[in-house]
């Protein structure tokens, strides 16, 4: 029986949105044990939270630097092997850099950094230390998204020519119109979120979904943002035209002010032989459409699905699995990589995805700033 992987957590305290998703996901396939953490910048709060969720407090550290320092003093077989970074965006880079430099593996929330420059520094750091790095584009862990990728790879829809991905949320609508409320949200503060709100928070997921499912690289983009108010520095809505090739084009639409929308991520990929459509709020249905055959719906867990898709389900068909399971699939892939086992490259998004995501975010900001011009991605 393989030993559990020793996991450290940075951020993701009881007051956070995403902490519980990572903690539960890390436990779902019995691969990890949480052994150390800095859940909050306030030490007392971190300790109190560790007690609340019944994690030993001897390796709850007062801050990130202390965590690295103290863990390095431990014998290798006791030391944290991988750290999940779940803090606001501006802390991802300094944390990931120090972890990678010191040989820890990293699971990092998106966006990886606040600049493309920082992303390339992390890429070099990872190459140097030969560590495992995953960026949690959670939706790639859904069985039917994996199925899309494998079907497109196998030629099921022929040559891809049109892509349409939309990620619409509405939660900032209740905040953005009030100047005071606006200043309380870190996602609208460039010092904490970086150069973008909407594109960096959710547009980047949409971007990654296009590249993950089609296997194609987006080569150039043209963006049009809405900031809603002249004194608001952060985009809250944007439409991005994308070109993968001269005859392969599409659109990424993202919004945090699509009033009443919850987590409306939806992707459609069209090829010359067929089309595929999937929606995050209804994740166990993959629509397969063609000009000549009746509409088909693929569902998880059936033998007709690909190996990669089937690896992402745990129960027989008809037992709905959701976002916790999708994240758990990413953790499962990372566990295989850490243990040196074989894994499919669709099991978790990597450093390359993270770097491309930062290139996308910066390019959209540049395009919008220059008056909605085409910008080439590297
Ligand atoms: N993959 C996804 O779908 C997804 C969804 C939501 C959020 N996220 C990402 O997760 C990250 C966190 O987002 P959130 O919504 O959970 O934020 P949040 O503000 O709800 O929580 C942030 C947590 O980090 C802690 N923290 C802040 N500074 C810290 C420090 N110096 N040391 C240790 N802990 C510290 C806070 O106390 C809090 O517990 C962001 O980068 C965000 O983009 C990803």
Automatic annotation (TrEMBL):
Domain of life: Bacteria
Domain Gfo/Idh/MocA-like oxidoreductase N-terminal: 6-136
Residues in GFO/IDH/MocA-like oxidoreductase domain copies: 145-277
Name this polypeptide is given: Oxidoreductase
UniProt xrefs under InterPro entries: Gfo/Idh/MocA-like_OxRdtase_N, Gfo/Idh/MocA_oxidoreduct, GFO_IDH_MocA-like_dom, NAD(P)-bd_dom_sf
GO molecular function (one): nucleotide binding
